[in-house]
Amino acid sequence: MLTDRIKDLIARARIVSFSSWEAHPAASIAIFQAAEDARVYLTDENYAQIEALSPQTSSLIPISQLLRDRVVEIVDEARVEVFAQFPHITEPGGGLYPPERAEACWRDFWHYLRPISYGLAGGYAEYTSAEGLKNMQALYQELQVPLDAMTVGLEGIKAASLRRIDASHHAIVAPYFDHLISQLKSFPAHHE
Question: Of 29, 52, 63, 71, which residue is least crowded by CB atoms under 10 Å?
Fold first, then answer.
């Protein structure tokens, strides 16, 4: 059962911000913001509109679309990586037990890739909100989320994503993942 505090933190743990995206017109930002408000990935129509409004990011849009289209398999590969490093994490006494905790974790993986895909489509590698991250950190502490496993999962998302992208783009794309990984690594671990 989620407490009112946890529900409030979930609502405020929005880790993406478009406030510094000066290179985009308001109409483009509105498209990103609408997707973020609905907590969904951009649609092909959204991508076409963004590309028309902000052609400077057109080279990254196909990569963002690819990640969106392959999110299920990317998250599945990241989950395998978590189990490889933490084989008992979903068993009684593990950080992702009971099963609802594990499901919330895998959902977070899906949501980690979403703002990364926004950052790519917008051409901003630093797409996070300090306030949203602060709330996410508080939420993770409140729920005693195993940060080491979440970090491994996010690194697994990066690795699985890069495997699907032409090697010539790795240096361009990696910072979008590294930015969120470094933010998550800065969260203090909870102590039991």
Answer: 52
